[in-house]
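Example 3.2
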Amino acid sequence: MGAVYRHLLIISAVIGITLVSLWGAAAYAQGTAIGIVKIAEGEVALLRSDSAIPVEIGTGVNLHDRLRTGANGSVGVTLDDGTLISLGPNSLFEFTEYEYVPQRGAFGFLGSVLGGTMLYSSGKIGKLAPERTKIHTPISVIAVRGTRFAVRLPIATGN
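Structure, written as tokens:
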């Protein structure tokens, strides 16, 4: 896991540095984006409804979207609350639930890692409502109580 973990840490560092940049208006064109792709390398696809959309820096990510990386792919996403999700090669991740409405005190995040490798670094939701922050895997549910962790699962198959 050493090389993959180092690769994910580098991606997370790049994402963290770019957090100071302005959010692209294109990411919010539909008004439903919960985050934005900050880094994408190799084969990365966004699975939305019945479509596979090629991913590039600045692509908006919506609730229920899935990100899939190929054998040479990696991707890093920053959510509205500052949560960072980084995926390594042969990974599949779904943004299952997301709620970030500070004005109402409404916070929640549920992501599903269906295969591959993922590095999670909590944003405001994880800090303000850790009990409402969870990651599902095919074999367990991870209740997030810390700020950063990695998951490694067998290679993802299917959509």
